[in-house]
Structure formats: C-alpha cells, structure tokens
Amino acid sequence: MKPPTIRITDYKWELYNLKEDYSQFNDLSAAMPDKLKEMQALFAQEAAKYGVFPLDNQAFARAIAPRPSTVAGKTVFTYTGVNVGIPTDNAPNILNRSFTITAEVNVPQGGGDGMIATEGGRWAGYGLYMLKGRPVFTYNLLELLVARWANDGDPPLPAGKHKIVFDFKYDGPGIAKSGTGVLKVDGREIRTLQIPKTIPFMIPPDETFDIGDDTRTGVNDLDYQVPFPFNGTIEKLTFNLGPTQLAVGDQKKVQERAANARD
Which residue from 109, 103, 100 is spatially nearest to 135, judged by alpha carbons? Predict the structure, then answer.
C-alpha cells in the first residue's frame, strides 16, 4: 500500500489527449513536458479567474471531523412516539463501538408493520422495523453487505406490548472491525449473526435519523419501500452506546484515509 498523500502539491500531474484517448489510458506528461507546462499555466489562470484557489484535498476529512453537537458525549438516548428528520450529527453514533437498541412497542390488531428506527439508507445505514408482524434488523454496509437479522418462519407477534432488542458487540479496538449482533423479542433470541466489517467513517449525511417512519431511502429495498410508517405505537425507544473503540492513532488514520479516498 502506498503511503498516504496529504499535501495537494504531492500529487503528480497527468496529461491526456482526449481526442484520441477518451479513456485516459496513455499519460503523456513525461513525453510532452512543454505541453504539460502550458496546460498547467492555463489551469492556474482559469482557477484564479473562477475562485478555485486555494486547492484543498481534505474535503472528506473535514466532513467527518468531530464538530460541536448537542449530543456530544451522550451515551444514552431515549425517545417516544414518532420523530423523523433528525440530522445525523444529532443522532446516536453507533459507528466503531458496541451498542444496544431497545424498542418498547404496542402492536395493533392484525400485526405490526413499519419502521421503528433507522439512520442512513440505500448506500449505508441500519434499520429496526417490523415486517408482516415480525421484527427485523438490517445493517447496510455501503451496499457491500446487507446483513439481516430476522426469523421469517416465526409466527407474527400478537397484538399488545412487546420489547424488541438489538444488541451489537463490536470487535474493537480499531476502525470498521467485525461484530456480532443479537436480535431478541420479549427476552427470546430470534437471530445471532456476525458481520466481518462495519461502516468505518460516516453514515451518509444526506439521510436522516427517523423514528416511526423512513423519510429518505430504505436500507433494504427487498423488504420495504419508503415511506414505511409504523402502524403501532412506540412507547419508548432507547439507544445505549458503548465507548468508542478507536485505538491510539486511529483518528489520525481516519483523517488520512478520508483525505486520500480517491487513491
């Protein structure tokens, strides 16, 4: 693995003749140094004209840098009822740590259906929901893996009060490590599953944290389509977060990897 490139001036300029090489396969920078200098000067002229300077390759690193937040340092979050459109910066951060989600719900006659809690969506995120009367937890790992905790052979939950728990043990310290999740209903284990990796940096910021519905994209299009309102009652929803499991130096690694994601 090549060392990370941090300074914008460390990148190598490349030169292509797009009239003949539309796929940019043949780098002409070494063979045509005078033409490269000409194009560099033109770039500098246009960049100054349109306010491109100063160049900065750390946009993604800045995007994941910790910021002041109303929930900074919180490890216990409690909600009731429907609450949608919460920005990801104000949501419980489940990344790189163990966590437990406990949902105390009242299932209506005819069976429960709909989203209990979700953050993220099609590109990355998680969702705890009921599908045709049965609880499900889905973890979407950047579409590389969509893990699903459920037992579709179980009978639907009867009407009334139930406690649904998803407990995840993270195999840290470190970034994006594996972990094991257990889905339980009323103290009975429904499904245990280990996943080899977890989301490393961030859940897409153009998604939101939703309780009682799913207002953006779904984490599992095979299970449901948005919107996906819960037809029961969420009496209490609790997130318990374990300590962040980043090893010494991991935060710097996160910043460096983010700054060089295109490499």
Answer: 103
Per residue in 5-14, pLDDT (tens digit) is 567 778 889 9
* Residue 149: Cβ-neighbour burial (10 angstroms; 0-12, 13-18, 19+): buried
- CA-closest candidate to residue 196, choices 261, 151, 147, 242: 147
CA distance 111 to 134: 8
User: What span, in angstroms and rounded, lies between the C-alpha atoms of 186 and 158?
Assistant: 12
Measured CA to CA, the distance from residue 4 to residue 263 in angstroms comes to 8
Among all chains, which residue has been given the structure tokens 């490139």?
5
The pLDDT tens digits for 62-84 are: 766 767 788 888 999 999 999 99
Strand-pair partners of 2? none
Give the per-residue pLDDT at 54.
86
Predicted TM-score of the model (pTM) = 0.76
Count how many residues are written for the chain. Answer: 263
Q: How far is CA 27 from CA 102, 159, 163, 206, 261, in A?
A: 56, 67, 61, 36, 22
Distance CA 172, CA 202 (A): 17
Annotate 86-123 with DSSP letters as a single string. EEGGGS---TTS-EEEEEEEEEPTT---EEEEEEE-SS
Percent of the chain with pLDDT over 70: 89
